[in-house]
Specification:
Elements: H1 4-13, H2 18-43, H3 50-60, H4 64-71, H5 76-120
Helix pairs in contact: 1-2, 1-5, 2-4, 3-4, 3-5, 4-5
Length: 131
């Protein structure tokens, strides 16, 4: 979808710890930076047209800036296609984050309700730590 932005947004939706997001962000950034050099080198050997190259870059490179840097080498047609493909994915980020956040919120409410029921059903003489 959108690389580091997607990791950050989804991380917030699922309440991920910062340390759970650091390595994925680093890897997305590293791979995208490598793509700026590697993908153009493969463009002609793979026999891709400018438009096909744009589709490949837009779908395969995670960050918008890296998509622009990679696709512009193949010309304006490749750049235009790559940006449209990438921004289409970016547009899907907001609904995905909203859906994920709603599911996570519902899951947290269900876990809390189960814990309350468990506390109420414990024996009268005992005092469970959750009550």
């Amino acid at each position: 979808m959108c690389g580091a932005s997607a990791i950050g947004a989804m991380g917030a939706a699922v309440r991920a710890r910062d340390e759970e997001q650091a390595v994925p962000v680093a890897l997305v950034t590293l791979c995208g930076t490598l793509a700026i050099a590697v993908l153009p080198a493969l463009w002609h050997p793979l026999g891709l047209s400018n438009v096909q190259f744009g589709h490949w870059v837009g779908a395969g490179v995670h960050d918008v800036g890296q998509v622009v840097a990679t696709a512009q080498i193949a010309g304006t047609a490749a750049l235009a296609v790559a940006v449209v493909v990438k921004l289409t994915g970016v547009l899907m980020l907001a609904p995905m984050v909203a859906i994920t956040a709603a599911v996570e919120r519902r899951r947290a409410v269900e876990v809390e309700a189960r814990a309350r029921r468990s506390c109420r059903s414990s024996s009268p003489g005992s005092s469970p730590p959750c009550c």
